[in-house]
Every structure is written in structure tokens, then in C-alpha cells.
Design a protein that fits this description.
This protein is of the alpha+beta class. It has three helices and three strands. The chain has a three-stranded antiparallel β-sheet with strand order 1-2-3, with no helix packed on it. The termini are far apart. The structure holds zinc ion.
Length: about 100
């Protein structure tokens, strides 16, 4: 839910578009105009699932960010949290080579 960055009100209405085509909004409580911050966009679970698959393909984060339409800082943070939560699970066991 979009809310006003000044007063946190959810009484926000669309207020035309700014020069770069982004949707402008206006708060009906305090009158502030603002553009929704793309960093605050909710990343859907299906997008996260797709990112998980792309990570396995060794695609650079910048590429994944573009394909999935997420910001690179968000993606980096997501990856950091993901690998922090499973630290020791991916241990490579060395196979004995045939003599
Ligand atoms: Zn407000």
C-alpha cells in the first residue's frame, strides 16, 4: 500500500506524471506531492523464485536485476541474506579420483 512519506497517510491520490513519465502522487492529508520510490516496491514471491533459478545459472547480478526488474542494491541485499541463512549447506565433497 502506498503511503505518504511525510505523514504516512494512505489517503494518496494520483496526480499526473512527472517529466520522466513516472506516476506522481499527492497526499490528501498534508498536500505533499511525491513519486513512489521504486526501492519500496514489493518483490513478489514468483520473482524471488525466478531470481533463485537465475542465481544458479551464474548470471551476473546486474543481468538478473534487469531481467527481473529489481534494483541491484536490493538484489545484492537479497543474495547476502539468502547465503547468510544457509552458510554451511553447500559443502563440496571431493571425490576420489580413480587410481
Ligand atoms: Zn501526507
Amino acid at each position: 500500500m502506498l503511503h505518504c512519506p511525510s505523514c504516512q497517510s494512505i489517503k494518496v491520490v494520483k496526480n499526473g506524471r512527472i517529466h520522466n513519465g513516472k506516476q506522481n502522487h499527492k497526499c490528501r492529508d498534508c498536500g505533499r506531492q511525491f513519486v513512489a520510490n521504486s526501492q519500496q516496491k514489493i518483490i513478489s514471491q514468483s520473482t524471488k523464485n525466478l531470481i533463485d533459478k537465475l542465481l544458479l545459472e551464474k548470471i551476473p547480478l546486474a543481468g538478473i536485476a534487469r531481467v527481473c526488474d529489481v534494483s541491484e542494491p536490493w538484489l545484492q541485499n537479497y543474495v547476502n541474506r539468502k547465503y547468510a541463512s544457509v552458510p554451511q549447506e553447500v559443502q563440496v565433497t571431493s571425490k576420489k579420483k580413480g587410481a
